[in-house]
What does this fold into?
Amino acid sequence: MIDLINVSFSYENGTEALHDINLRVDNGEFAFIVGSSGAGKSSIIKLLLRETTATEGTVIVNGYNLNRLRNSQIPKFRRSIGVVFQDFRLIPNMTVYDNVAFSLRVTDASTKLIRQQVPYVLELMELQDKARKFPYELSGGEQQRVALARALVNDPPLIIADEPTGNIDPEFSYEIVEMLRGINRCGTTIVMVTHEHEMVKYFGGRTINIEDGVVVFDDYIGGANESK
Ligand code: ADP
It folds into this structure.
């Protein structure tokens, strides 16, 4: 699903953000990527979304070799990933329903499919009562659930969540991760970047720690809530 092989990445000014990274995330996994500010987390995300390309090494995501991906293939590749950002990135003048439907409309989905899928994912994210609201009428946690519904609606094999709880009150942050866990249990691979160590300790699972552009830890940690 995700395979980084001897990947290094430097910015144009010469800063080496990632150095010789080897990282594989298989289908169906849930992996946390943690690390301090400046560790290289955003640079990895940019590589995975093909916003930039590796300076050295090979990046494979969802069967696409991103080193060789032609520009014309980028939109199709990006549709194979659902992305959730720290700042939600909802369209402010669209309702919850239309924000989610938009993600299907851009793929030329049929009206029938839109009418089936949008209510389905809104219900999964417990947003069925918010369909006609606008983003500004929702709390941060609710807005992020809309973003999750939007990421899910195309049924991508992979969801990348970049600090999804960064702008949410702590009491609702856990709910967002619970929802990501639920999505993962249905088979979707999830990579979640976070700097919130408490959250990772609470949930446990595969934890990849990046510091100064290298992987310093990659293993499973037990979660504090595991017996529940
Ligand atoms: P994180 O997301 O973990 O905070 P980044 O991937 O943003 O880390 O940064 C990794 C390194 O790359 C840092 O040393 C950072 O200063 C540097 N960096 C990030 N963005 C740029 C950029 N646009 N140009 C040059 N250096 C950058």
About this structure: The mean pLDDT is 95. The first strand starts at residue 2 and ends at 10. Residues 76 and 107 are 9 Å apart (CA to CA).
